[in-house]
Amino acid sequence: MVSLRLRPVWGKVIGSSRRDVLRTMRLIALVTLVAINLASMIQVGTLDRPPATIANACAALAFVTMLRAIEYARRRPVPVWVDAAECLAMLAVAVGLGDERPLLGPIFLMVLYRAATSPALRMLPLAAGYVAMLIAATVIEPRITVFPATLVMLAVVTVMVSCLRALVLRVQEQHRSQRALLDAVLRRLPFPVVVTDPVGAVMMANPAAGDLLGWSPGSGTRLADLRFVGLDGRPVDLAAVAGAEASALEVRLLRPGGSSSDILIETVPMGAEADGAGTVFALLDVSAQRSYEESLHHAAYHDALTGLPNRAMLWQHLNASVEPYSVLLVDLDDFKAINDTHGHRVGDELLAAVGHRLRAAAHGRAVVARLGADEFAVLCPGADRAATERSAAALLATFDRPFDLSGKRVFVRGTVGYGLSADAADPDEVMAAADAAMHRGKPLAHPRAA
């Protein structure tokens, strides 16, 4: 549980360090300086010196540590006169102790801290002051011996760290320029784009993304505030896929007002996952495309007049059936006469009304389809002969009542024939048996039925 709670915090620290490398360098240098100064205080305490001298030395080390902490907080060096006071304080400590060794570590770290965090012109006074301080200490106190190599090493390392800082500044400036260019390009893109950091927090969302997702400028944009579900209806957490390998994902965005949009999301990591880089989400609203595809599918497998499944859809159900079934064919009697008498509009209304009644009469998992003209079919999964005859009777009963169409009352009868999968080898034979039974006028439960 602790590791789960610390992970977001650690991710924020890493993300912050990537955005400001120099601040991270300052923090690392400050922590190292504090540790070295504490070790030096302990070393001073082990020396055979008067308590007052040891206390003064520890106070001086605490003083210079405090100065570096002030520099870290202010993000700029203390004034030059403070540097001079610092060097004089350390000189007094070295002379009082008669030993420079406990101070060499802090001196190196303080100069390196300044070199890593300040321009060269503000690094040189402190470095020169400490070099002069060490030389002066050897002159004032004969017990102090500073080797020339130590002074050379201090100067060389300081220059190296200063050059490294300049290089980091240059790289960071290039990174900022590239980031600004990327932001400008992404914001001008006509399609929605969202950029997140390694822990999934939104770093940038262009105006197109704001329009699609309902984000207003200046609002707290968070992926966690959005509701996405997958094609299977399960919730999808986009923040969880931030930083993953490039992939495409289709989800449905559910808005608070009840509206929704089908969105195709391309996730593109901005770097290797191990590096903790962020992720670019390219969004495409495919609602219109999906609606068009659904309309095409519906038109291909449904009858335009009645809205019932058509012959192609019925055959899909027949071929996919894994249990016994029956098929009932329903044909209207004298439909041509109704068309000729009342007109084709009434005839179309009659077909739609018959389809509605047949669908209401069919129970359970039955599939009612219009095969064409005035012929309908009813697929009854799991039905045996007795159940099929009951269904046929129910279908014929739908014609006992007249149809009110465009202010006219129309009576029509139907003929029913059925076929059983148990009596046939394949769907073709079932349909052929039902068609033959219907045309033979085989009586079932109604005197007009076959």
From TrEMBL:
Keywords: Membrane, Transmembrane, Transmembrane helix
Domain PAS residues, every copy: 178-217
InterPro entries noted in UniProt: Biofilm_reg_signaling, GGDEF_dom, Nucleotide_cyclase, PAS, PAS-like_dom_sf, Rev_trsase/Diguanyl_cyclase
Gene3D superfamilies associated with the record: 3.30.70.270, PAS domain (3.30.450.20)
PANTHER family: BIOFILM ARCHITECTURE MAINTENANCE PROTEIN MBAA (PTHR44757:SF2), DIGUANYLATE CYCLASE DGCP (PTHR44757)
Keyword rRNA-binding tagged: no
Protein name (record): Diguanylate cyclase
Annotated coiled-coil segments of the chain: none
Keyword Transmembrane: yes
Listed transmembrane segments: 27-46, 52-70, 120-140, 146-169
GGDEF domain mapped to chain residues: 323-450
